[in-house]
Amino acid sequence: MEHKKINEKHCGLRVDGDIHAKFRHACGFHGRSANAQIIRLMLKFIAEYESEHGKIKLEK
């Protein structure tokens, strides 16, 4: 049985095959999985957003 983190979410993504192949190639070049690179990109985007608009407050 697979163990998941309590707050871990799955995110499906539809993407053009050529973009996907190029992205995976570039990720491999940097020694990262596509998943790890997407998370890095998301965190960078969130940091830029919060820098301009203030910290995002999540309701629990």
Automatic annotation (TrEMBL):
Organism: Oscillibacter hominis
The name this protein goes by in its record: Arc-like DNA binding domain-containing protein
